[in-house]
Design brief:
The protein is α/β, with parallel strands linked by helices. 47% of the residues lie in helices and 14% in strands. The chain folds into two domains: 50-299, 3-Layer(aba) Sandwich (Aspartate Aminotransferase, domain 2); 313-395, Aspartate Aminotransferase, domain 1, CATH 3.90.1150.
Length: 396
């Protein structure tokens, strides 16, 4: 059956890790794959997570399956984290949450729900977007289209073009939006722009799919969720996908959730039953360890406070690295403006380098970034900044 298969090229992002690992250079720098690293280059286990994991191991009494909906304590914690406790969708029981294998599982499950309900629905993705978005959404059988987002020349959001594009979308189109820390650009919508966008979503009857993968790493936990909550309060239906990889550091545990807010408790319940059936068909039930860890952490006020303090420190470090890199690039390459890096948020920015320069960074200077020149700021430290700046100056 499989004798005629040709080997596929490595994933453009994950292949960077393999190439980096195979590079024997002592001065190599990995700013490609999107994982948080500290100054020592390690992806740390957060203090509160380590304690919560130990408690899970101590208290666990069974290895029986979870239900298809996942860990109930985790689902309650994620609902509170994303929507808060006083949101009308929560108090009126119009919100349902289902645990998934990572944010990727949440995206695919949301796409499957849309395809099952309305197979001809189109999903609009920003240009650019995270490279796995088209595969996850398209893999469910949905057609994807694009809307303008980032202006490469201006190093910022082309909001008039974005708004005009969405204003021309047919009713019922799903619009994938990143509420904070846009991947790959780091450029987020400002509050007045969200106000205008909300009006278009309402007027054109568009369904937002909000991919919340970096809550807490942009402006803070509450601030990063404010437009998720606003849209869920003012629109009849919203789909939200959540990842615990970045803000809880649970990358390899693959922990995420899909949240739906609807018009009524009955509608939310119906959606929940369909999500569970889709999950049963796809992976049957999710793993428990990471979800149980989040549930234990969230239930302990002291652990939750320590987790948020460490997350705040991570966010502040990212902001400082942005300013340091922008300043160093500006000094070394004064003919080009890199100040946009300091104005953006989250883990990523696009350097705006041509493909040949990206290849030269890798082959000549051992600096590994994504093919579109996306860099992960969390892969830097003071020594790495100096090496990256020198390499960028050389290839330009």
């Amino acid at each position: 059956m499989f004798e005629n298969l040709d080997a596929l090229a490595p994933d453009p992002i994950l292949g960077i890790s393999a190439a980096f690992a195979a590079d024997p250079s002592d001065s190599k720098v990995d700013v490609g794959v999107g994982v948080y690293r500290d100054d020592a280059g390690q992806t740390p286990v957060m203090r509160a997570v380590r304690i919560a994991q130990a408690r899970v191991a101590e208290l666990e009494r069974t290895k029986t399956y979870l239900p298809a909906s996942g860990n109930a304590a985790f689902n309650a914690a994620l609902t509170e984290l994303v929507l808060g406790t006083t949101h009308p969708a929560v108090t009126e029981r119009r919100a349902v949450t289902l645990q998934t294998p990572g944010g990727c599982g949440a995206l695919r499950l949301a796409a499957d729900l849309v395809h099952e309900t309305a197979p001809g629905t189109r999903v609009a993705l920003s240009t650019p977007t995270w490279p796995n978005h088209p595969a996850l959404i398209g893999g469910a059988g949905l057609e994807t289209v694009r809307y303008p987002y980032y202006d490469e020349a201006a190093r910022g959001i082309d909001f008039p073009a974005l708004l005009a594009s969405l204003d021309a979308m047919p009713a019922g189109t799903v619009i994938l939006l990143q509420p904070s820390c846009h991947n790959p650009t780091g450029a987020d919508l400002a509050d007045p722009q969200w106000e205008e966008l909300l009006a278009v979503l309402q007027r054109r009857q568009l369904l937002p799919l909000l991919d919340l993968a970096y809550q807490g790493l942009g402006e803070g936990l509450e601030q990063d969720a404010r437009w998720v909550r606003r849209l869920a309060a003012e629109l009849p239906e919203v789909l939200i996908t959540v990842s615990c990889s970045k803000n809880f550091g649970l990358y390899r545990e693959r922990v995420g959730a899909v949240i739906y807010t609807g018009r009524s408790p009955a509608e939310a319940h119906a959606v929940h039953t369909h999500l569970m059936r889709l999950a049963r068909r796809m992976y049957s039930m999710p793993p428990d360890h990471g979800a149980a860890t989040v549930g234990v952490l969230w239930a302990d006020a002291a652990l939750r406070a320590d987790w948020q303090a460490e997350l705040d420190a991570m966010r502040q470090r990212l902001a400082a690295l942005r300013l340091d890199l922008a300043d160093a690039l500006g000094r070394e390459i004064p003919r080009r403006d890199f100040s946009f890096i300091g104005r953006q948020r989250g883990m990523f920015s696009l350097l705006g380098l041509p493909p040949a320069a990206v290849e030269a960074l890798r082959h000549d200077h051992h600096v590994y970034c994504a093919p579109d020149s996306r860099i992960n700021l969390a892969g830097l430290n003071p020594a790495a900044i100096a090496r990256v700046v020198a390499a960028v100056a050389a290839v330009l």
